[in-house]
Amino acid sequence: MRFRVLPYLEALVGLVVVTWLATAHPAVLDLASAALLFLLPVLLGATRGGVGPGLFAALGGAAAYNFFLIEPRFTFQVHRLDNLVSVFVLVAVALVTSRLATRLTAREAEAREQARLSAEVAELSALLAGSPASSALEQGLAALSARYGAIRLLDGTHLPEGDAAFSPLDLSAAAWSAHNGDTTGHGTEVMPAADWTYLRLAPKNRTDSGIAALARPVDGATRGQVELEHLAELALLLGQCRDRDQLENERSERERLKQADELRRTFLASLAHDFRTPLTVLSGRLSELAPTSEAARDALGAARRLERLMADLIGAARLESGALAPVVDSIDLTDAVAAACAALAVPPGISLARAVPADLPFAAGDPVLLHHVLVNLLDNALRHARHRVSLKAEAAPDRILVHIDDDGPGIPKAERERIFQRFQRLDGSDRDSDRGADGTSSGSGLGLAIVRGFAEAMGMTAAASSSPLGGARLTLSLPPFRGTAR
Amino acid sequence: MSRVLCVDDEPAILRLLSVVLAHDGHEAVPAATGREAMARLAEGRIDAVLLDLGLPDRDGLELVSAIRAAGPVPVIVVSARSDVAEKVAALDLGASDYLVKPFDGDELRARLRAVLRQSGGGTGGPVVHGPVAIDPARHTVTVEGRPVSLTPREFSVLQCLAEAGGRIVTHAILLERVWGKAHREDVEYLRVAIRALRIKIEADPSQPRLLRNEPGIGYRLDASD
Q: Which CATH code for domain A326-478?
């Protein structure tokens, strides 16, 4: 504490006044009352200036009392012991009062400091919350830098190695803070020789925290415990702001993707719609004429094929664009197979046999996508079969298998993966030869690619092998339904 | 001979519909907009409506509700939109059936026959549907004259489907009528009941000819072939 003269002067003035009062009117004041008067400068000195001025007033008061008031006057001799008591009382009052006053002053200063720190936290919060998300962090950093010196934000997992501003010791301190959650570096107990102080941007329990690096004070001082705790709190505020910033970015990115998705979906839906209207007129008119005209029958077959090609093209576009959103539900394969068979025309001369056990577990999948998959698989088999196509469903451990067999030419081993790729047809084999009743070319080269794409989107798999019937076997493997997730 | 209101903004489709309907001796009453459709309907003597959802002046689904609110005339949606959600929405709003363009003329006529037959029928008495006869009063079912014993749930499902008279009933409606509102989405309940029903009433339960499913939409009781 600095030495201050003023309280001593005040105490001295007090002493002079009290001494004058006591000596000038001896008739009014008796000795005891005069002694009490000498307490006043002691209280004044102790409260205003602490122990020093208090003791000064006490000893000065005792001396003045002895010299001016106690017989023999104008000497410092003390004849009676009880006069000593007043000296002790004055000293004791000075000590106690000054102690109380000092404590009170310290408390007051502490409260003022606390209020200042709280105000600073509130100020930073308001600044971060009030600024637009994009610039809030920058503004907050600028405000803190202006008060506390240079601040840099570091990524806790990618520390700036090779940056001249950070010595190896500093990097270790930063890593420690990132991993152990403490405030480290200059001014702390962990690696205090570092040039920066490292404060976490997220609470201890989070492992993905960023770090704020705070340069040591320019005047060479060391930050105190209270200030470091306060800075740690401010760093957390910056961290919250950064998190908010990131969340905001992620949210707007998601929103953008959703809109793009929506646009694609709408486009594909309207494309399908625009194709379907003329096709309806075409196939509708032709089917009215078909019973009496072979030309109309041929044209009708072509129109029907066109419908299927269109469905495949749109299916491929949905796969390509990622606009597929399977809605998984329980599926009874009896239903799915019956619906698929009903949607197909079996060409004359070919038989389609199906066997779905009545106790087959329910499968999990999107009923509409599965319908498309089964129709494409059956259509593929019907186009390549000589006489027979068979569909057989069976339960396997943890899966449900659907085999679709034909007695056609089969698929060479080397080609069994390739047929599921887009626009793949087997060259030199009659895998793509026409089997339709209409005499037009068939197969878009997309059918099996869509089978695989749709199947995988629903957690199913599709594979080719050889069939006991002599031709190809295509097997769809479905996951069993395990109840609703609700 | 019935008068069928055909609502579509494409003149070629309207002409096609009138040819398809003429086959069964029905008269097509054309309307190109929602406004025109409501006007024709108000004039009366319309037995059924074939409705395209993509109209220039009015949302198709909204029109479904409007037509249903105006009277007991059955509506078949004939749309180029094949979205499952839209089909279900149209059916739940009261459409009797839903056909996706391009449609098959024979199928359209069959569905139309089903709704026309139904709109004349009453309720309460025994319902006969192909080989299946249901007596709601006595809670009994016979298939080709042979009595079949059903659980109350199976009976309710079959009754719901039979009352719809060959029209499709959505999963949600069946579940709500038989199991209650809280189970509108528990499609597997329905699958279990349908499977049990098939074993009891179908000649070959693995190749159902009576209880037909439309993927993602619902079931129909269809004894037509």
A: 3.30.565.10
